[in-house]
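Sample A.
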Amino acid sequence: MHLLAGARMRKMEGGGVQALARKERGVVLLKRGAPAPVHFVSEERVAEVGHMHADLMGAPGLKLQRQICDPGEALKHGDDDIYDSAFVDAVAESLVKCVSLGYEIAVVVGAGNIWRGRQGGEMDRTEADRMGMLATVINSICLKDAIVRSGGDAHVMSAVPMAPFAENYTAEAAKKYLSEGSIVVFGSGLGIPFLSTDTTGAVRAAEIGADAMLMAKNVDYIYTADPNKDPNAKKLDTIKASEVLAMNLKALDATATAFCLSTGMPIHVFGLKNPDDIIKAVKGEIVGTVVTAE
């Protein structure tokens, strides 16, 4: 099992491992969504960000970075049915592989494949969002099952009481599971309406002491325009979080972006067409767009 490989790696590295893990935790937030127009920055800043990200995510010997992922609508992957079973299994296998490489993986699950609060029409927004929170727990159970079938170990944790379907979330319990080599799947968002799973990922990342948030979307980069509609759209290598907010860009959730700006957490946006890209991103390969705090 991949879990055993990860456990052996921790055992061989000995007592310094946990100190290293506290110093160098990464976060992945896998979120499928549409890009929004952004603007270019200098090549000097691209090089600077690339160097920073390589130091953060890919430096030799940094084997225990904590990652948060948000598959959400990615579990569907197509136009038919709620789940694409083969794709769910592929995502789970990639997550288990990351654990086998020595990374600690947590997952923030969205519910776009089942329900979005804005689909509620004339419904009370709070009630509509509560439906979405319930749907994230359904996705969490689905992903946990796929992880276990892929040879990993997983725990579903919920921000609201959901026994026996999920454990009550506490940061302390989540970090304990992660340190033991389990994948933690977070359901029900933050347990309150009006906040996206992007924001949930940012908050959970801060709670586990993460250093970066990686977001997988349905495009490989953030572009200057929607590449599916504008043939002249160009890839963006880097942009500041403050610029994302000032320009009111929709590629990233504003609340999540502001939270990461306040905590100084960089965001790495990349594509999820190939689940193997999860492994590449977690290992620190610079594929996609880096959003810097400043």
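Sample B.
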Amino acid sequence: MDQIALLLALGWRLLVRCNRKSRCYQARTTNRTVCRWVEAQLFQVLLPAQRLHFRFWILSQLFPALLAQRLLMRMVQPVVAYPLVTLLRNMPENAAHKLKNSLKPSSRSDPQPPIETSLAALGPVGLSPLTQPADRSLCNEYIQRYHYLGYKQPFGYRQRYFLQAGANRLGCILLSGPAKALTARDRWIGWDDRQRLKNLPWVVNNSRFLIFPWVKVTNLASHVLGQLARRVGDDWQRRWGYRPLLLETFVDPAHFQGSCYRAAGWELLGRTTGEGLVRPGRRYQTSPKLIFAKPLQADFRCLLCSDQLSGRTER
């Protein structure tokens, strides 16, 4: 009986992986039908306690951790033999670390003594790429605690940096995937829809830029942005296997005017419409943002409007 359950579970996992990678609608529909049949066969041979574990495993594979936890709590209510604490301890690590409580402020991100000095007196300032999970988690915590937009899970390829001067940590930067379509940016680049969809990965978005509130150093932000433009190409090539051509960012004029971006040589392209790419049946409201861009290569426009670019850009 256990061998049959194991074979069915392995088959279910294989079908799920195939379904994720398949781009054919008919194949995906067939896979979903077979998955339901395999799941039904599993429930016939598994004990009630084993069924609960299998249901939770399915949820942890297919849904975000928070949704899986909510659905799990509904299923666990009538089950007395399986305490909720025991089930949460067995939660997969790749789901557990995404829970919102992991971003709750801790002593690691507590405010530090004020740093109020000139850039020259501060000493050498550098960007430190974050490669360790603990450092990335701390960066997320800083952003959630001190950035007015908070932290949101970035999409696409991403890179995080700490701003450091000696032993002093001054702020952090988060880079991620670009906006799918921006009228002002796309007109400025000059590419058509086909070129945009193909070459969009060579544009990187500066989605979060944070200097800690206890750091008061004139011209620090523009100085760091200049360093970022000079080194991001090498860092991206080293980590992701290709070199980006353009940096972009958004600035909310209700809070900032983008002075540090202007001082660092970024170009103001215009404003967003504030409407976004809305899915059918959903409403989306936001205020228009200023769009800034920084070319990383002299011939960026020619390359973005061509078919010459190649690299490992799919994620």
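B remarks: The two ends are 39 Å apart (CA to CA). Confidence is low (pLDDT under 50) at residues 71-97.
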